[in-house]
Design brief:
The chain is α/β, with parallel strands linked by helices. It contains nine helices and 30 strands.
């Protein structure tokens, strides 16, 4: 068996944050998203590969080398060129050969052990499913109907979901199924795992489900990104920083090296402050601030601010600010 982590998307729903930063390498707490996945995969001691695109190759290559992981690079530079998940799986098979594949979406944060997941694998396609508990929310995903642990229906993004159980981007495909990818793609089928699973069911393939609870985050929006931070940031990680005696830190927070927390600032809870940021007389909570951003006399709540921004005299709530932006209100 081989593990394949899919990180070839351009994450347009999180633009402008992900315009130059691959989503899988965004920070969540003191680590990046991919770190949480790799930690779980390494316990399995199987060959592991990251699938990405030419545009983000330079960022993934040192990461892959550091962790002793292979890199498969599709030759695309733009959203409209991308191969998609099934196309990228085909490329992996072409390069690595047929095998059973553990396939994991690279923007996926989940609570279960992959060891437990694989113990449920019996040679038939296996998918991890999670109850989102809300039909409106379920409409965004692939919705599963089960009979015991057998999948009897799978519908991608249905307008009227038949359940609130959804597929979570963690799969095991046996080699016989990986062999059918060419057949699936050659008929002009849509290039996403959900439609592939629907097609497999229609062709009589048995699919089993592994149910889990606790938490699952598909980091596809600012809200899910910030909720993941709240769940996974358990304790503070404060590096070498400059901090005013009048400033207050409310844990848990992450404050990276070289940051300056000046004046009567209040940081936290659930705040990430990147390297060399300057925060002065400002309150920041439930937010992620990327490196070298300057925030003065402002209140930031449930917001994500990209690198090298300047924010002055503002109150930002539920905002997403792209890199190098300068926003201020007059004194």
């Amino acid at each position: 068996m081989k593990a394949l982590i899919m990180a070839g998307g351009y994450a347009t729903r999180l633009w402008p944050i992900t315009k130059d930063n691959p989503k899988a390498l965004l920070p969540v707490g003191d680590r990046v998203i991919l770190d949480y996945i790799i930690e779980k995969v390494k316990e399995l001691e199987i060959e592991t590969y990251i699938s990405t695109n030419r545009f983000f190759e330079a960022q993934f290559r040192p990461y892959a080398e550091k962790h002793g992981i292979g890199l498969i690079v599709e030759d695309t530079l733009h959203e409209e060129e991308k191969l998609g998940t099934i196309g990228a799986m085909k490329k992996a098979v072409d390069e690595l050969g047929l095998d059973d594949y553990l396939v994991i979406a690279g923007d996926n944060l989940f609570s279960f052990s992959l060891g437990d997941f694989l113990r449920a694998y019996d040679g038939r396609t296996l998918i991890a499913v999670y109850d989102v508990g809300d039909p409106e929310l379920a409409r965004r995903y692939g919705v599963v109907v089960l009979e015991g642990d057998r999948v009897i229906s799978f519908e991608e993004k249905p307008p009227q979901p038949r359940s609130t159980l959804v597929s979570t981007g963690v799969y095991v495909f046996p080699r016989e199924v990986m062999e059918r990818i060419d057949d699936y793609l050659s008929n002009g089928n849509r290039d996403s795992p959900g439609y592939f699973l629907q097609w497999l069911l229609e062709k009589g393939e048995e699919i089993r489900a592994y149910r889990f609870s606790e938490y699952w985050y598909d980091i596809g929006s600012a809200d899910s990104y910030l909720e993941a931070l709240r769940t996974l940031l358990k304790e503070s990680h404060v590096e070498e920083i400059q901090i005013s005696p009048y400033a207050k830190i409310i844990p848990p927070v992450v404050i990276k090296r070289g940051a300056k927390i000046l004046g009567r600032s209040m940081i936290g809870p659930y705040a990430y402050i990147g390297e060399e940021c300057v925060i002065e007389n400002s309150d920041i909570s439930d937010s992620i601030i990327f490196r070298k951003t300057v925030i003065r006399n402002s209140t930031i709540w449930r917001s994500i601010i990209d690198e090298k921004c300047e924010i002055r005299n503002l109150e930002l709530r539920k905002s997403l600010v792209g890199g190098h932006a300068k926003i201020q209100r007059g004194e």
